[in-house]
Amino acid sequence: MGKYFGTDGFRGEANVKLTVEHAFKVGRYLGWYYGYYGQTDSAQNVGAQPGQEAAADPEDFPLRKARIVIGKDTRRSSYMFEYALAAGLTASGADAYLLHVTTTPSVSYVVRTEDFDCGIMISASHNPYYDNGLKIISGTGKKIEAEVEDKIEAYIDGAIGELPLATGEQIGRTVDYQAGRNRYIGHLISLATRSYKNTKVGLDCSNGSSSSIAKSVFDALGAKTYVIHNEPDGTNINRDCGSTHIETLQKFVLEKGLDVGFAYDGDADRCIAVDGNGRIIDGDLILYVCGKYLKENGQLTNNTIVTTVMSNLGLYKALDREGIAYEKTAVGDKYVYANMCENGHCIGGEQSGHIIFSKYATTGDGILTSIMIMEVMMKKKVSLATLASEVEIYPQLLKNVRVSDKAAVKANSAVSEAVAAAEEELGEDGRILVRESGTEPVIRVMAEAKTDELCEKHVDAIIEVMKAQGLVSE
Q1: Spatial separation of the C-alpha atoms in residues 205 and 213, rounded to whole Å
Q2: Neighbours of 302 (CB within 10 A)
Q3: pTM of the model
Q4: Which residues are catalytic?
Q5: Alpha-helical segments (H) within 70-145
Q6: Mean pLDDT score across all residues of the chain
Q7: What number is the average pLDDT over the span 102-123?
Q8: Within 10 Å of residue 205's Cβ, how many Cβ atoms?
Q9: Is the separation of the CB atoms in 28 and 16 below 8 Å?
Q10: Torsion angles phi and psi, residue 355, rounded to 5
Q11: Which of 394, 398, 381, 385 shows the shortest CA–CA distance to 442?
Q12: What is the pLDDT of residues 261-274, one digit of tens each?
């Protein structure tokens, strides 16, 4: 990870860690960079691609106008960052296409299907409204290459020369591009093979990006759609709602007698479902339901599902029973997708609800995930409760421990011995995971076992050893 860009873009409190000046400079650099490296008529740059070093000089002005599309969520600061990005892009000679309030996966879809150089999504996902972020998406719809992020950081910090300003006809345009979002809605609707007539579906839009899309998709497919938290005011995104506060949707599904409910996060790249009995259907259960269905229909490429190390032991036992293989990656949807691309797998995801269907998308897509779940339910004429009942989810406990040196914890023999002892006692009926946070001086200690009491016992025992070794920061 870089100075500004983490595993999911440039994120922080608006105008504190991520400022309007940062956004302007990101726009300035991307507008120049894609204008320069995207050109084909410059003899000095023939064959160069974004991410490669070429004979580019920051004082050279691009010979073509880059085309960059921008989407945003409903945070108050998203409008400020949208205008700052557009100003930076157009000042560098690029044309900025505004999708307005939309989802992260819609930006990815529009970029890769409509010949844009890159896309920018303004969102801090599931974070509170006062945070925001810039997610940069490459022309192929994937998260931008690390080397491009490094170049942007160098420009922000003044480590490379100032870029030329566009003048006259070189100045870029800002284009209203709501039509791109509408085409994405049409794409989602086209994926369903059956009507949802007479099916009662609840949607929790988290007062975020899905507020402008989700209901219209389900209405078009014939569902009886019941929606909550779809009145964003700039400060209520993710507040006691959405995929991180699933209890609200659970109550709503039971009160209204709905067949199923879907909750999204702020930028709608996650989905957590609720069955008709009010049970939470998290990413692990979604992977099982959809993965088994794909296998039954001969569509589970390589007979493999990609998970992260945080997936529940119950999922793995259920997959073993069904004869479905699986791979485990580090936590983060970008690692899941990288594994899928490298090995040609078609489905993968995280417990948190980032589910990727590579046939249709290059990123997690909450609304797409909802449609895939509905396909299984409608095709098999079985409730989500029945489909998910085949998996016994093990109790799981995760505690975060602040430490002075993460590497010292991982290298400590007493800690390793405590982990090994816990694993031996649990045997095949549980597991222990001790891993480093990627962004904080924190070690995460997780246990899965047959009971909550066993989880608590083993997590606390390992933490006590860490304290006894003087590794914990008070």
Answers
A1: 9
A2: 13
A3: 0.90
A4: 125
A5: 76-91, 104-113
A6: 93
A7: 96
A8: 30
A9: no
A10: -120, 130
A11: 398
A12: 999 999 999 999 99
